[in-house]
Design goal:
alpha/beta, two-stranded parallel ribbon, 104 residues, 15% strand, 47% helix, 2 domains
């Protein structure tokens, strides 16, 4: 938010945030948080393409603990030349293609 770093994420992150908050019964808050993500000045939302689906399967075959959405995030990141993943999902720890940094 402060511009110390430039960041990017798959558009799936927007979906995930809105879904998690909505399923708790807070639809209005979920949409407001979605809008807040869209307005973040130093965050770029990256498209998911068909090729990311193909790569998702391959990454899941290679890394048994990698969840499907995380495999999509990985594909999108690598396709865009991003090699550092910041996440609370420790399944990225064993992925050779990226450096994983925990949020915790």
């Amino acid at each position: 938010m402060k511009g110390k770093i430039e960041a990017a994420t798959s558009v799936l992150t927007l979906d995930e945030v809105v879904w998690v908050i909505s399923r708790e019964g807070y639809r209005k808050k979920a949409l407001a948080e979605g809008e807040r993500i869209l307005e973040m000045p130093h965050l770029k939302l990256l498209d998911v393409k068909t090729e990311d689906g193909v790569r998702m399967i391959n990454y899941q075959k290679r890394y048994g603990s990698l969840k499907p959405r995380d495999a999509v995030h990985l594909s999108v990141a690598l396709r865009n030349g991003i090699h550092t993943v910041v996440s609370d999902d420790d399944d990225f720890e064993d992925v050779d293609e990226v450096k994983w940094e925990s949020l915790l």
